[in-house]
Amino acid sequence: MINTLTITDFRNHHMGRVLTHGHRNIIIVGPNGAGKTAILEAVSMLSGDRGMRGAAMGDIARFDGNGGFSVFAELNDDTSVSIQFNSGDTNRRAKIDGENATLSELSNVLRMVWITPREDRLFIDSASERRTFFDRLISAFDASHSGRTARLSKLLSERTYALKNGADKNWVDAIDTQIAGVAVAIAAARIEYAGNINYFLQNCAVSVSGMLEKMLIDGSTAGDAERSYIEYLKNNRLLIGDKMILDGAHKSDFGVFNKKLKLPAQLTSTGQQKTVLIELILAHAKLLHTKTKHRPLILLDEAVAHLDMNARKKMFQELGDADAQVWATGLDIEIFANVPDSIIVTCQNGEINNIVSQG
Protein backbone atom coordinates (compact mmCIF):
# COMPACT_ATOMS: atom_id res chain seq x y z
CA MET A 1 0.00 0.00 0.00
CA ILE A 2 1.31 3.44 -0.91
CA ASN A 3 1.78 5.91 1.94
CA THR A 4 3.40 8.73 -0.03
CA LEU A 5 3.47 9.40 -3.77
CA THR A 6 5.76 12.10 -5.20
CA ILE A 7 5.72 13.01 -8.90
CA THR A 8 8.03 15.43 -10.67
CA ASP A 9 7.60 16.90 -14.17
CA PHE A 10 4.87 14.37 -14.91
CA ARG A 11 2.28 15.52 -17.46
CA ASN A 12 0.97 18.87 -16.19
CA HIS A 13 2.38 18.43 -12.68
CA HIS A 14 5.64 20.27 -11.98
CA MET A 15 5.77 18.63 -8.58
CA GLY A 16 3.03 16.99 -6.55
CA ARG A 17 2.75 14.85 -3.47
CA VAL A 18 -0.09 12.69 -2.19
CA LEU A 19 -0.05 11.61 1.46
CA THR A 20 -2.53 8.78 1.99
CA HIS A 21 -2.19 8.65 5.79
CA GLY A 22 -2.79 4.90 5.64
CA HIS A 23 -6.23 5.13 4.05
CA ARG A 24 -7.36 2.40 1.67
CA ASN A 25 -9.35 4.64 -0.67
CA ILE A 26 -7.68 7.68 -2.22
CA ILE A 27 -10.23 9.82 -4.04
CA ILE A 28 -8.89 12.44 -6.46
CA VAL A 29 -11.41 15.08 -7.50
CA GLY A 30 -11.26 18.17 -9.65
CA PRO A 31 -12.37 19.65 -12.98
CA ASN A 32 -11.43 18.27 -16.38
CA GLY A 33 -7.79 18.92 -17.24
CA ALA A 34 -6.77 19.37 -13.60
CA GLY A 35 -4.33 16.45 -13.67
CA LYS A 36 -6.39 13.77 -11.89
CA THR A 37 -5.73 11.01 -14.40
CA ALA A 38 -2.04 11.94 -14.48
CA ILE A 39 -1.77 11.00 -10.80
CA LEU A 40 -3.26 7.56 -11.51
CA GLU A 41 -1.00 7.19 -14.53
CA ALA A 42 2.01 7.98 -12.35
CA VAL A 43 0.98 5.24 -9.92
CA SER A 44 0.52 2.82 -12.83
CA MET A 45 4.10 3.44 -13.98
CA LEU A 46 5.28 1.82 -10.74
CA SER A 47 3.91 -1.51 -11.99
CA GLY A 48 6.87 -1.75 -14.39
CA ASP A 49 4.44 -1.56 -17.30
CA ARG A 50 4.17 1.34 -19.75
CA GLY A 51 1.38 2.80 -17.69
CA MET A 52 -2.37 2.96 -18.02
CA ARG A 53 -2.20 5.10 -21.16
CA GLY A 54 0.66 3.22 -22.83
CA ALA A 55 2.15 6.55 -23.88
CA ALA A 56 5.66 7.27 -25.14
CA MET A 57 7.91 8.32 -22.27
CA GLY A 58 8.78 11.61 -23.94
CA ASP A 59 5.09 12.49 -24.14
CA ILE A 60 4.64 11.99 -20.40
CA ALA A 61 7.36 14.45 -19.43
CA ARG A 62 6.10 17.95 -18.57
CA PHE A 63 6.23 20.14 -21.68
CA ASP A 64 8.25 22.93 -20.01
CA GLY A 65 10.43 20.66 -17.91
CA ASN A 66 13.81 19.12 -18.66
CA GLY A 67 12.41 16.35 -20.87
CA GLY A 68 12.26 13.76 -18.11
CA PHE A 69 10.08 12.77 -15.17
CA SER A 70 10.19 10.80 -11.95
CA VAL A 71 7.68 8.91 -9.81
CA PHE A 72 8.59 7.97 -6.24
CA ALA A 73 6.52 6.06 -3.69
CA GLU A 74 7.02 5.07 -0.08
CA LEU A 75 5.03 1.99 0.93
CA ASN A 76 3.50 1.05 4.26
CA ASP A 77 6.22 -1.57 4.86
CA ASP A 78 8.92 1.14 4.49
CA THR A 79 9.88 -0.08 1.01
CA SER A 80 10.52 2.67 -1.54
CA VAL A 81 10.08 2.29 -5.29
CA SER A 82 10.70 4.72 -8.11
CA ILE A 83 10.68 5.18 -11.87
CA GLN A 84 12.78 7.79 -13.62
CA PHE A 85 13.06 8.80 -17.25
CA ASN A 86 15.60 11.32 -18.54
CA SER A 87 15.70 13.13 -21.85
CA GLY A 88 17.93 11.23 -24.26
CA ASP A 89 17.40 7.87 -22.53
CA THR A 90 15.73 5.04 -24.38
CA ASN A 91 14.54 3.24 -21.26
CA ARG A 92 13.15 4.02 -17.85
CA ARG A 93 15.21 3.37 -14.76
CA ALA A 94 13.70 1.62 -11.77
CA LYS A 95 14.86 1.52 -8.17
CA ILE A 96 13.75 -0.43 -5.11
CA ASP A 97 14.97 0.93 -1.77
CA GLY A 98 17.39 3.14 -3.66
CA GLU A 99 19.04 0.25 -5.51
CA ASN A 100 18.80 -0.25 -9.27
CA ALA A 101 16.14 -2.80 -10.23
CA THR A 102 14.57 -4.22 -13.35
CA LEU A 103 11.09 -3.18 -14.43
CA SER A 104 9.82 -6.74 -13.87
CA GLU A 105 11.02 -6.60 -10.26
CA LEU A 106 8.69 -3.66 -9.65
CA SER A 107 5.69 -5.82 -10.50
CA ASN A 108 6.63 -8.15 -7.63
CA VAL A 109 6.46 -5.24 -5.19
CA LEU A 110 3.27 -3.52 -6.39
CA ARG A 111 0.48 -5.59 -7.93
CA MET A 112 -2.09 -3.44 -9.67
CA VAL A 113 -4.85 -3.27 -12.21
CA TRP A 114 -6.72 -0.32 -13.67
CA ILE A 115 -9.91 0.67 -15.42
CA THR A 116 -9.98 3.67 -17.72
CA PRO A 117 -12.77 4.94 -20.00
CA ARG A 118 -11.09 2.86 -22.71
CA GLU A 119 -12.13 -0.36 -20.93
CA ASP A 120 -15.79 0.66 -21.20
CA ARG A 121 -15.66 -0.83 -24.71
CA LEU A 122 -13.85 -3.99 -23.63
CA PHE A 123 -16.62 -6.43 -24.53
CA ILE A 124 -17.47 -4.91 -27.89
CA ASP A 125 -13.95 -4.01 -28.97
CA SER A 126 -11.49 -6.24 -30.83
CA ALA A 127 -10.13 -9.53 -29.51
CA SER A 128 -6.68 -7.93 -29.26
CA GLU A 129 -8.00 -5.40 -26.72
CA ARG A 130 -9.46 -8.18 -24.56
CA ARG A 131 -6.24 -10.21 -24.79
CA THR A 132 -4.24 -7.19 -23.66
CA PHE A 133 -6.60 -6.56 -20.75
CA PHE A 134 -6.69 -10.14 -19.47
CA ASP A 135 -2.98 -10.73 -20.09
CA ARG A 136 -2.30 -7.72 -17.87
CA LEU A 137 -4.46 -9.28 -15.14
CA ILE A 138 -2.58 -12.57 -15.47
CA SER A 139 0.74 -10.73 -15.19
CA ALA A 140 -0.26 -9.56 -11.71
CA PHE A 141 0.31 -13.17 -10.62
CA ASP A 142 3.13 -14.08 -12.95
CA ALA A 143 5.44 -11.27 -14.08
CA SER A 144 6.95 -13.61 -16.67
CA HIS A 145 3.60 -13.79 -18.50
CA SER A 146 4.01 -10.27 -19.88
CA GLY A 147 7.51 -11.24 -20.94
CA ARG A 148 6.17 -14.30 -22.74
CA THR A 149 3.54 -12.31 -24.64
CA ALA A 150 6.17 -9.78 -25.69
CA ARG A 151 8.49 -12.63 -26.67
CA LEU A 152 5.78 -14.25 -28.79
CA SER A 153 5.17 -11.01 -30.67
CA LYS A 154 8.88 -10.65 -31.36
CA LEU A 155 9.24 -14.25 -32.53
CA LEU A 156 6.30 -13.92 -34.91
CA SER A 157 7.93 -10.83 -36.42
CA GLU A 158 11.21 -12.70 -36.78
CA ARG A 159 9.40 -15.57 -38.50
CA THR A 160 7.75 -13.20 -40.98
CA TYR A 161 11.12 -11.59 -41.72
CA ALA A 162 12.78 -14.99 -42.18
CA LEU A 163 10.10 -16.26 -44.57
CA LYS A 164 10.02 -13.00 -46.50
CA ASN A 165 13.78 -13.17 -47.07
CA GLY A 166 13.95 -16.87 -47.94
CA ALA A 167 15.78 -17.91 -44.79
CA ASP A 168 17.27 -21.35 -44.33
CA LYS A 169 14.76 -24.02 -43.32
CA ASN A 170 16.69 -24.86 -40.16
CA TRP A 171 16.48 -21.24 -39.04
CA VAL A 172 12.71 -21.21 -39.49
CA ASP A 173 12.46 -24.58 -37.71
CA ALA A 174 14.26 -23.11 -34.71
CA ILE A 175 11.94 -20.10 -34.62
CA ASP A 176 8.87 -22.35 -34.87
CA THR A 177 10.08 -24.44 -31.94
CA GLN A 178 10.49 -21.33 -29.81
CA ILE A 179 7.10 -19.97 -30.86
CA ALA A 180 5.38 -23.23 -29.93
CA GLY A 181 6.94 -23.35 -26.47
CA VAL A 182 6.07 -19.75 -25.63
CA ALA A 183 2.57 -19.90 -27.15
CA VAL A 184 1.55 -23.04 -25.25
CA ALA A 185 2.80 -21.52 -21.98
CA ILE A 186 0.70 -18.41 -22.65
CA ALA A 187 -2.39 -20.50 -23.45
CA ALA A 188 -1.96 -22.56 -20.28
CA ALA A 189 -1.67 -19.44 -18.12
CA ARG A 190 -4.85 -18.01 -19.65
CA ILE A 191 -6.81 -21.20 -18.97
CA GLU A 192 -5.58 -21.32 -15.37
CA TYR A 193 -6.51 -17.69 -14.79
CA ALA A 194 -10.02 -18.11 -16.21
CA GLY A 195 -10.60 -21.05 -13.91
CA ASN A 196 -9.28 -19.19 -10.87
CA ILE A 197 -11.19 -15.95 -11.34
CA ASN A 198 -14.46 -17.77 -12.00
CA TYR A 199 -14.32 -19.01 -8.42
CA PHE A 200 -14.74 -15.42 -7.23
CA LEU A 201 -17.38 -14.37 -9.79
CA GLN A 202 -21.08 -14.63 -9.00
CA ASN A 203 -22.96 -12.94 -11.81
CA CYS A 204 -20.67 -13.60 -14.76
CA ALA A 205 -18.17 -16.16 -16.04
CA VAL A 206 -14.92 -15.85 -18.00
CA SER A 207 -13.88 -18.20 -20.78
CA VAL A 208 -10.93 -18.29 -23.15
CA SER A 209 -11.01 -19.70 -26.66
CA GLY A 210 -8.33 -20.38 -29.22
CA MET A 211 -6.51 -23.08 -31.13
CA LEU A 212 -4.02 -23.92 -28.38
CA GLU A 213 -6.44 -23.34 -25.52
CA LYS A 214 -8.80 -25.90 -27.07
CA MET A 215 -6.01 -28.48 -27.31
CA LEU A 216 -5.18 -28.08 -23.62
CA ILE A 217 -8.81 -27.98 -22.47
CA ASP A 218 -9.52 -31.13 -24.49
CA GLY A 219 -6.80 -32.97 -22.57
CA SER A 220 -3.57 -32.57 -24.56
CA THR A 221 -0.43 -32.30 -22.51
CA ALA A 222 1.74 -29.22 -22.97
CA GLY A 223 4.27 -31.36 -24.83
CA ASP A 224 1.66 -32.79 -27.18
CA ALA A 225 0.25 -29.31 -27.84
CA GLU A 226 3.73 -27.99 -28.64
CA ARG A 227 4.42 -30.81 -31.09
CA SER A 228 1.05 -30.35 -32.79
CA TYR A 229 1.60 -26.63 -33.09
CA ILE A 230 5.11 -27.06 -34.49
CA GLU A 231 3.66 -29.32 -37.17
CA TYR A 232 0.97 -26.72 -37.89
CA LEU A 233 3.62 -24.00 -38.23
CA LYS A 234 5.70 -26.14 -40.60
CA ASN A 235 2.66 -26.63 -42.82
CA ASN A 236 1.87 -22.91 -42.90
CA ARG A 237 4.90 -21.06 -44.18
CA LEU A 238 3.37 -19.18 -47.08
CA LEU A 239 3.14 -15.41 -46.98
CA ILE A 240 0.10 -13.59 -48.33
CA GLY A 241 0.94 -10.01 -49.18
CA ASP A 242 4.11 -10.22 -47.09
CA LYS A 243 2.02 -11.28 -44.07
CA MET A 244 1.61 -14.56 -42.23
CA ILE A 245 -1.86 -16.00 -41.85
CA LEU A 246 -1.51 -18.02 -38.67
CA ASP A 247 -3.71 -19.16 -35.82
CA GLY A 248 -2.36 -19.44 -32.30
CA ALA A 249 -2.09 -17.71 -28.94
CA HIS A 250 -1.83 -14.34 -30.69
CA LYS A 251 -5.37 -14.85 -32.02
CA SER A 252 -7.08 -16.16 -28.88
CA ASP A 253 -10.05 -14.38 -27.34
CA PHE A 254 -11.70 -14.06 -23.96
CA GLY A 255 -15.43 -14.23 -23.47
CA VAL A 256 -17.51 -12.97 -20.54
CA PHE A 257 -21.01 -14.30 -19.98
CA ASN A 258 -23.62 -12.46 -17.91
CA LYS A 259 -25.24 -15.27 -15.93
CA LYS A 260 -28.09 -13.13 -14.58
CA LEU A 261 -29.23 -12.09 -18.05
CA LYS A 262 -28.04 -15.30 -19.69
CA LEU A 263 -26.31 -13.32 -22.43
CA PRO A 264 -22.75 -12.68 -23.59
CA ALA A 265 -21.58 -9.38 -22.08
CA GLN A 266 -21.27 -7.73 -25.49
CA LEU A 267 -25.02 -8.18 -26.07
CA THR A 268 -26.03 -6.39 -22.86
CA SER A 269 -26.49 -2.66 -22.24
CA THR A 270 -23.62 -0.25 -21.59
CA GLY A 271 -24.57 -0.01 -17.92
CA GLN A 272 -24.69 -3.78 -17.55
CA GLN A 273 -21.31 -4.11 -19.23
CA LYS A 274 -19.86 -1.60 -16.75
CA THR A 275 -21.30 -3.56 -13.84
CA VAL A 276 -19.70 -6.76 -15.14
CA LEU A 277 -16.38 -4.98 -15.64
CA ILE A 278 -16.43 -3.76 -12.03
CA GLU A 279 -17.25 -7.29 -10.84
CA LEU A 280 -14.26 -8.60 -12.80
CA ILE A 281 -11.96 -6.13 -11.06
CA LEU A 282 -13.41 -7.00 -7.65
CA ALA A 283 -12.92 -10.71 -8.31
CA HIS A 284 -9.38 -10.09 -9.54
CA ALA A 285 -8.54 -8.19 -6.35
CA LYS A 286 -9.88 -11.01 -4.18
CA LEU A 287 -8.06 -13.63 -6.23
CA LEU A 288 -4.82 -11.68 -6.08
CA HIS A 289 -5.00 -11.27 -2.32
CA THR A 290 -5.88 -14.94 -1.83
CA LYS A 291 -3.12 -16.26 -4.07
CA THR A 292 -0.26 -13.91 -3.29
CA LYS A 293 -1.19 -12.31 0.07
CA HIS A 294 -0.23 -9.02 -1.57
CA ARG A 295 -2.49 -6.01 -1.12
CA PRO A 296 -3.45 -5.04 -4.69
CA LEU A 297 -3.71 -1.50 -6.01
CA ILE A 298 -6.84 -0.77 -8.03
CA LEU A 299 -6.84 2.35 -10.21
CA LEU A 300 -10.30 3.57 -11.27
CA ASP A 301 -10.24 6.49 -13.70
CA GLU A 302 -13.77 7.94 -13.90
CA ALA A 303 -15.02 4.40 -13.40
CA VAL A 304 -17.69 4.92 -10.73
CA ALA A 305 -19.46 8.09 -11.87
CA HIS A 306 -22.31 6.15 -13.50
CA LEU A 307 -22.93 3.85 -10.54
CA ASP A 308 -25.67 4.75 -8.08
CA MET A 309 -24.89 5.49 -4.44
CA ASN A 310 -25.60 1.95 -3.20
CA ALA A 311 -23.56 0.35 -5.98
CA ARG A 312 -20.57 2.62 -5.23
CA LYS A 313 -20.78 1.91 -1.51
CA LYS A 314 -20.99 -1.85 -2.10
CA MET A 315 -18.07 -1.76 -4.53
CA PHE A 316 -15.74 -0.01 -2.11
CA GLN A 317 -16.80 -2.27 0.74
CA GLU A 318 -16.00 -5.35 -1.34
CA LEU A 319 -12.64 -3.88 -2.37
CA GLY A 320 -11.99 -3.35 1.34
CA ASP A 321 -12.76 -7.03 1.96
CA ALA A 322 -10.12 -7.85 -0.67
CA ASP A 323 -7.65 -5.69 1.29
CA ALA A 324 -7.06 -3.51 -1.77
CA GLN A 325 -5.93 0.10 -1.89
CA VAL A 326 -8.07 2.01 -4.39
CA TRP A 327 -7.13 5.19 -6.23
CA ALA A 328 -10.16 6.70 -7.95
CA THR A 329 -10.86 9.90 -9.87
CA GLY A 330 -14.05 11.87 -10.31
CA LEU A 331 -15.39 15.34 -10.98
CA ASP A 332 -17.41 15.79 -7.79
CA ILE A 333 -16.77 14.99 -4.14
CA GLU A 334 -20.45 14.22 -3.64
CA ILE A 335 -20.39 10.94 -5.54
CA PHE A 336 -17.79 9.61 -3.08
CA ALA A 337 -19.60 10.79 0.06
CA ASN A 338 -20.27 7.29 1.40
CA VAL A 339 -16.91 5.70 0.60
CA PRO A 340 -15.45 4.27 3.83
CA ASP A 341 -11.83 4.64 4.97
CA SER A 342 -11.20 7.31 2.35
CA ILE A 343 -9.24 10.48 1.87
CA ILE A 344 -10.07 13.21 -0.63
CA VAL A 345 -7.32 14.78 -2.72
CA THR A 346 -8.32 17.90 -4.63
CA CYS A 347 -6.55 18.69 -7.87
CA GLN A 348 -6.59 22.06 -9.67
CA ASN A 349 -4.48 23.27 -12.59
CA GLY A 350 -1.93 20.50 -12.18
CA GLU A 351 -1.51 21.17 -8.47
CA ILE A 352 -2.52 19.01 -5.51
CA ASN A 353 -4.14 21.58 -3.29
CA ASN A 354 -5.33 19.87 -0.13
CA ILE A 355 -6.26 16.63 1.49
CA VAL A 356 -9.47 16.08 3.43
CA SER A 357 -9.97 12.93 5.49
CA GLN A 358 -13.33 11.15 5.40
CA GLY A 359 -12.51 8.80 8.22
Could you give the topology of this structure?
Layout lengths: L1 E9 L2 E7 L5 E5 L6 H10 L11 H4 L8 E7 L4 E6 L7 E4 L2 E3 L1 H7 L2 E4 L11 H13 L3 H22 L4 H30 L5 E6 L1 H7 L4 H13 L4 E2 L2 E2 L8 E6 L4 E2 L5 H23 L4 E4 L8 H13 L3 E6 L11 E7 L2 E7 L2
Parallel strand pairs: 3-15, 3-16, 8-14, 14-15
Antiparallel strand pairs: 1-2, 1-4, 4-5, 5-6, 6-7, 9-12, 10-11, 12-13, 16-17
Helix pairs in contact: 4-5, 5-6, 6-7, 6-8, 9-10
Provide tags for this entry.
alpha+beta; 6-stranded antiparallel β-sheet; 10 helices; 6-stranded mixed β-sheet; 17 strands; Glutathione S-transferase Yfyf (Class Pi), Chain A, domain 2; Rossmann fold; 359 residues; 40% helix; single chain; 2 domains
